[in-house]
Design goal:
mainly beta, 10 strands
């Protein structure tokens, strides 16, 4: 059964930090590029961070230097460390494949207050 379960979201003040986790019960996880996506209120979902199967990372300009994506292939987990959070980081965060996409999970809400 394909399943992505995100957790770790919450309400933080500007400048705070959160660490998101994604448990991926999916096939071909270890060879798939994985990503964290964000959907802000009233906006389309966007890819903010991605990591290749051998842990090469890439970030959207809006989060570069503040967010760090990582993965544990043995545990089929993907993480997103978010520091120096800004109100514009508010949204629902989802993990999913980049090369091979799976069914979307429920996401985790991140709210950054000013």
């Amino acid at each position: 059964q394909v399943r992505l379960v995100e957790s770790g979201g919450g309400l933080v003040q500007t400048g705070g930090s959160l660490r998101l986790s994604c448990a991926a019960s999916v096939s071909m996880f270890s060879i798939n590029n994985m990503g964290w996506y964000r959907q802000a209120p009233g906006k389309q979902r966007e890819l903010v961070a991605q990591i290749t199967s051998n842990s090469i990372t890439n970030y959207a300009d809006s989060v570069k230097g503040r967010f760090t994506i990582s993965r544990d292939n043995a545990k089929k987990m993907v993480y997103l460390q978010m520091n120096s959070l800004k109100p514009e980081d508010t949204g629902v965060y989802y993990c999913n494949g980049v090369t091979i996409q799976y069914s979307w999970g429920q996401g985790t809400q991140v709210t950054v207050s000013s």
